[in-house]
Amino acid sequence: MKKVKTLHLASFDGNIGDSANHYGFYKYLQQNNNFIFEIDKLEIREFYWNHKKFDEEFVELVNKYDFLIIGGANFFELWVEDSPTGTSIAIELNLLEKISIPILFNAVGIDSGQGVSEKNKKKFKKFLDLLIKRDDFISMRNDGSKETIIKNIDIKYLNNIYHTVDAGFFIDVDNPTNYYLNKKYIAINIASDMPDVRFKNISYKEVISSFKDFIHLFLKEHNNFEIVFIPHIYRDITFINDIILTLDDSIRRRKVSIAPLLHGEDSFKEVMPIYKNAQLVLANRFHANVCSIGLEVPTIGLVNYRQIEKLYNELDSDNYVYINKKGFEKELLNKISSNISVYNLSQIKQKYQLFHNNISRWINNHKKFRNLK
Predict the structure, then answer these.
(1) What string of H, E and C letters represents the secondary structure of the chain?
(2) How confident is the model at residue 271 (pLDDT cuts 50, 70, 90)?
(3) Which residue in 99, 114, 194, 333 is a FRET match for 218, CA 20 to 30 A apart?
C-alpha cells in the first residue's frame, strides 16, 4: 500500500466535539485499501490567533505534503467580511492556485446563521468555482448546509458538493468512571457563545431563570436523579456557573456535578462516556447532539441556533425544544415526559459509508495519488 503524507488543518484543541468528529473520520478514512494516510495535524486556531496566516509560507508548507484535509468543522461560515473567501479559510485565490496537492474539505458547515452579505456570497462562489476547477473534494455536513447553499449561493453547486452526516456519530467509548457509572442522571450541555444570535429573542437572565425552574421542577418529580453539566469549550463554564448560582443550595450541593473541561486529541474519550451512561441528554452544541445520538442515548436538542434545528430536521426528528423563548422549561418537561426514543442509526451508517466510498473513489482515481511512489 502506498503511503500518503497528509496534512490535516482543523480544530484539535479547545473543543471535545471536534476531537470526536476527527476520530470517526479517521476510522473510516483508513479503510482505503490502496493508501495509508500518515497524518500531521495543524491547528486552525493558530490562524485565528494570527500566529499563522494563509500566505506564501502556508502554501510552501502544504506543498511538502501529498494531501491536504481541511475540517470538518463550521469553517464555511459566511459572515467573515475581511476574508478573501468570505469564510474562515481566508486564503487569497491566487495562493490557492499555487497549492499543488489535492484538497479534501471534510464535512464542513456552510453556515449563514450569523448573516451573509452579497459581497461574501460572490467571494464564496468564486472560491467554490476554483475548488471545483482544481478537482478538489468538497463536502458539507448535515446541519442545514445544503439549505444554505440553495437559499444563499446557488443550487447548481450541489452537483459538486457531497452531503454527509457528521463523523461524530461514529465514536467508540468505554464506560465512564465508577463515579458516573452508578448514578442516574441527565447530562446537560449548554452554550453561551454568539450571544447576539442565541439570546436574540430572550435575555440571558431569562434563559438562566428558565433553566433554574426546569432543574427544580425536574428534580422534584425525579428525586432519584442528578444533573451533570458537560462543558465542551471554556465559554460553557460561565453559563453553567451562572445557572448553578441560582439553584437552591441543597440542590447544587447534592444533585449537581460538572464534567471536566478537557482538550486535545483524546479528550472526548474521557468525557463522551458520561453522555453514554446518561438516562437522557439535553444538548445545545452540535457535537453534543451528534455524539449522544450516535451513542444511542435518548437526546433532546436545545435550540437557540439554527444548526441544531436543521440537524434534527435532516434526521426527520422532532426531538428538540426552542430555548430562545420565555417559559421553555414547561415545553422541555413535556418533551421529556413523551419518552424520547433512541434514534435508529442504520441509515446514518449507510450514508456515511457511501460518503467514504466516494472519497476512496476520488482518491483512487486522482492522478496526483496515482503518481505516488
Answers:
(1) CEEEEEEEEECCCCCHHHHHHHHHHHHHHCCCCCEEEEEEEEECHHHHCCCCCCCHHHHHHHCCCCEEEEECCCCEECCCCCCCCCCCCCCCHHHHCCCCCCEEEEEECEECCCCCCHHHHHHHHHHHHHHHHHCCEEEECCCCHHHHHHHHHCHHHHHCEEECCCHHHHCCCCCCCHHHHCCCEEEEECCCCCHHHHCCCCCHHHHHHHHHHHHHHHHHHCCCCEEEECCCCHHHHHHHHHHHHHCCHHHHHHCEEECCCCCCCCHHHHHHHHHHHCCEEEECCHHHHHHHHHCCCCEEEEECCHHHHHHHHHCCCCCEEECCCCCHHHHHHHHHHCCCCCCCCHHHHHHHHHHHHHHHHHHHHCHHHHCCC
(2) very high
(3) 194
pLDDT-based confidence at 33, cuts 50/70/90? Answer: confident
Nine cell digits for residue 200 = 436574540
pLDDT in tens, 146-202: 999 999 999 999 999 999 999 999 999 988 888 888 899 999 999 988 888 898 889
Q: Which amino acid is at 340?
A: I
Which domains occur in the chain, in start order?
2-168+348-370 (3.40.50), 178-342 (3.40.50.2000)
116: left (phi over 0), alpha (psi -120 to 50) or beta: beta
